[in-house]
Every structure is written in structure tokens, then in C-alpha cells.
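User: what does the whole thing look like in 3D?
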Amino acid sequence: MSVIGNTALRTAAPRARGGVVQSARDSLVVAKRNLIRMARIPEVVIFGLIQPIMFVVLFSYVFGGSIAVGGSTDPSTYRQFLMAGIFAQTVTFATAGASAGIADDMHKGLIDRFRSLPMARGAVLTGRTLADLVQTALTLVVLAIVAVIVGWRIHEGILKALAGFALLLLLGYAFSWIGALIGLSVRTPEAATSGGLIWLFPLTFISNAFVPSDNMPTALRYIAEWNPFSATVQAARQLFGNLPVGYPVPSAWPMQHPVWASLIWSVVIIVAFRTLSVRKYRSATA
Amino acid sequence: MPGAIYAEGLVKTFGDVRALDGVDLDVPEGTVLGLLGPNGAGKTTAVRVLTTLIKPNSGRAVVAGIDVLKNPTEVRRHIGLSGQFAAVDEYLTGRENLRMVGQLYQMSARDAKVRAGQLLERFNLGEAADRTAKTYSGGMRRRLDLAAALVVSPPVMFMDEPTTGLDPRNRQQLWEVIQELVAGGTTLLLTTQYLEEADHLAHDIAVVDHGRVIARGTSDRLKARTGGERVEVVVHEARDISVADGILRSFGKGGSKIEEHTRKVTVPVSGGAKLLAEVIRELDARGIEIDDIGLRRPTLDDVFISLTGHAAEVEEERANGAGKPGGKPDGTQEGEREGVREGEPEGERERRRPVVGGPTRQDEEAAT
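Assistant: Here's the predicted 3D structure for the full assembly of 654 residues, as C-alpha cells:
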């Protein structure tokens, strides 16, 4: 039988179902592709793990005795305080991978194949961000184990702790859409690697992640308190029961209602940056 | 009724460059159109517009009866695209690549799996099916790419320089696949810078240069435009040139042309092989020793040169250096080196060096 010349087989592709169902299915197909790639290039995942582990160890032992939280310079108090910050930093730094990966994809012939297929428009990007989410979740699991080894504990029960991790992952997912937009906007994968990273330093340091924000200059303190990143850190700290006794919670609304603030910020970022990214993807190379 | 691929007045600019400058195309269902042109002529841009990858600045295009600009998603269901760079994921196996493409063509996971298996066997990738595409040779990757384009047996296929950079054996195999496809009723638009490829595969040829279609028709008609047959003689001794020229003119139907340094005399004729025999007898009777004699028919190379006023190589340099075309170089006779001699076996023709060879990356849309 002729596989390619058979007239009876000469048919268009099945009609697309369209809508959310097709979009979800196509995204999962692309996510699977990205996960297979991750499994076959494990270096990327492994380096992605080493960095946050280094942060945990360095911050715990280098800064641990010098930073006062809630009036105490006890290193073990700082470690409890620190971990939510490191977790949040880890999920956001993973977005640099999304920038680089998408920029890399956009410069390969495969993207023309995707764009010529009757697939959901956002699926290439959604598939990538979903795969990154899986990688981030794995990283968090390993990191949490390391954190427990250096003395970190949860104090509010497992359900609240899981809710804390869920908020962290949601933040990571939101940030990977920012990473996607960066990856689509730069001309080379190299530019995406640095472009995907530099903005994360001020974002994560002008926050409550590593030190309490109340000693910062007024302008920085204001930024730190409204920083979407701070909201998630604060929410995770609260849900893990890691807020030190006597730690003054700033009066800014996001710090008073960190769980809500974290949710709102993440959803707003996802909606905004997904819309921008998909639009950019559609017009890319046009 | 417009054909399976129809385009009208397509214009696409990239900054100051008019990559497409009013392209019209009409490809009847079940036929092959060869889009022939040098690097930078606009071939790839035309394919990208027709496959919904880029939007033209103006113009209209209809593929498989569907308006490309109004309903790109519907067009995508009916087309397959195989580009000049294998569009496969190198970290996925051949099988994984095809299954992914099948599912993204909205086939069920089961159908995509079955189809992937069939295509891998058909394209001799069965043994390599579960190795990552990274380990494939260039020819294997190109076959995988073509298989991906055929996952749904689309009624309309676009192939952008499918054989660029392939060795002769792989090229031959790919030609066979293309012929099988067309025999099955697929409409195909094929771009190529290999003149012999268009000659061999396409029913109709559109010659593209500087974003315009400068000529179209069957290979034979295009050749006829360039002029009919010629007799060409290379004499052994330079002093015999004028005598030979006299003899040729007595048989010819137009002015002769003499190249002193190669001792070559050419004259347009009509009368074919019989006339050639008479020319040989006459030369022999006058005692003129000849190194070479032949009846020449125009090749697509000749057509190309006479249409564009330059050889493809010249064009490539200009595409890199930008700027408008200069004066028409008198290169018309130069190209005849590439001509096909009467009675030459078909195989000889296929081994002939293409005008522009090698896996040259097409940079025309690098600006995008």
C-alpha cells in the first residue's frame, strides 16, 4: 500500500474542536515535548537545582547570625524567616529558563512547523510554561528537603504548608509568562538568558525576602511592601508559620492580606502577560 | 475557477526591501508549480505568505479554496509544509516528532501513533524511529521533516527548497517521493534554485526575480522563448574558424557567433540531428578537424539567464551586497557551458553541477 500517494488518504486534518478543550490538549502535547527535552538534557534541571541550594546554605550560614528579625539575631530564627524568601526567589529565577527556551525555539525551523499547524495559537507558549511549572515544582521539593535538613520547619500544619507552596508555584507560573514575553521580544537566545535574569535581582532584593523591609529607606520600603514578590513571600511565611514572634507586619494592604494579594497579583500577571505574549507570538516573524 | 493555490498581487516588504512585489500565481489542482529563482528572489517569502506564516502588505491568496488572510486556521488544516531547514525537534525521537505533529494536526493520539509508524517505514526511518533526531544524518532529518508535512496527507503541499544541501542519492529519493505524491493527486508548490529540479518535477514553472514573477509556463515553452536549437562546433585549429563559420552559416537560419579563444562557432538551426550529420560531412569534406560538435537545445539555465540578464551566481552576490540590479551583463553565451548535448544520457544530466550548489542558507528573510 502506498502510504503517501494514496488518493483515498488525501484529506484535510480533522476539524479542530476549537475553544478551551483544544487549547488545553494542544498545550499538553507541547508541554510533553518540553518535558521530554528536559529529561534528555538533565544538565539544565540539575544546574537549576544547585543554585537555590547554594542560596539556602550561603544565606543561612553567612548572613544567619547578622540579620535581626523580630528583634532576634538567633541564626535559627533567621533560617525560618529566610526559607519562604529563597523558595520564592527560586520559582521566579526559573523564569529565566522560559525566556531562553522560547527565544531558542523562535529561532528554529520547528516554530514554522508549529505556526503552520491547525493548533491553538497560545499552545506553544502555554506548553512551555506548563513544563517549566513541573520543573519548578520538582526544584521546590528538593529545596524543601534541603531546608528541612538545615533546620527549617512548618508550624501551621500540612494543608496550610501545601497552600503556601501552591501560591509559590502560582507566582512562578505567572513569572514564566513575563519570561515568555522577554523571550519573544529579544533577537537572540543569548540576550534572552541575560534579559530574563537581570530584572529579577532588583525585584527579589527590594522585597521582604531576605531582610525585613522596615529598615529600608522610605521609597524602597514602599516598593518592597507593594512588590508582588513580597506578597507571596509574606503569604508563604504566614502559611508555613515562619513569621518570627514580635515581627512587625507592615501596615500596607498586601502585607496585611498577603494570601489575597499574592493571588490577585499572580492572576493579574498571568492574564496580562499571557495576552501580550500570545499576541507577540502570533505576529512574530511577520 | 481559481486553482488549488491562487495568489493575486501579493506584496510583502521588510523595511525598504520589497521581498514580494506583486506576485500572481495560479496552480491547478493536482499539478506541480516550480517556483524558480536565485537566493533573495522572494521564493521563501511567497511560501511563508501562502502557508499563513506571515501576512502580506497587500494582495489576496486562496489555498484549497480557502482565503488565506480571512481564515488562516482553516487553511492550516489543508496544507503540509516542508522547509529548507528540517523543522524537527532534535531532542525528540523520529516517532515522537511525528506523533506530536499528528496530534497538533488534531488527530487522536491513537491515529497519530499509527500514522507515525506508517510514515517511518515509508521513509526508511523504521530502524532509527526511536533514536533522537539529533543522531540523524542530514538526509534522514529531511526525510523526517517531509514525513511530518505528510502526517495528514494534505491536499496542498508546500516544499521550500526541499533538496538544498542533499547528496544526489537523497535528492533522487526525495524526487521519487514527490512524484508519488503528485501521482496521488496532491497539489504541490515547490521552490528551488536548481533549474534541473524544476525541469524534472514541475508541470509549470514560474521564474521569480526581485519579488516578481518574470516568466511562467511549461519548461518547454520557456525554453522555446529563449530560441530553438543551435549547432555548435569547436575546431581543432584556429585558422579553420572562418571556413567552419562559412559552412555553418550555409546551414543556419541566422547569424553565427564566433568565440576566438575557444575556437567555437555557433549558429541557430532547424532540422535537428539530420542536419547535424550533413554539417559533419561538409566539415569533413573540407578537411576541417574538429574537437567537438553538438546540437544544442536551450536549458533552463539559458532561460534563466536570458530572462534575468544574469546568472544565478551573480544574483547571489548581489543579494548579499544589496542594491539594485546593475546593467545587463552580456553573460548570455556564458551560460551555455551548462547546456545539455544531444544524445546525452539522462543520468549525465542529473549529475551535472547545479548553478548554485551546496547548503547555502537563504538569508532573504533574516531581517524578520
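In plain terms: The interface with chain B takes residues 2-7, 9-17, 22, 25-26, 29-30, 32-33, 36-37, 40-41, 108-119, 123, 285-286 of chain A (CB under 8 Å). Chain A has a mean pLDDT of 88.
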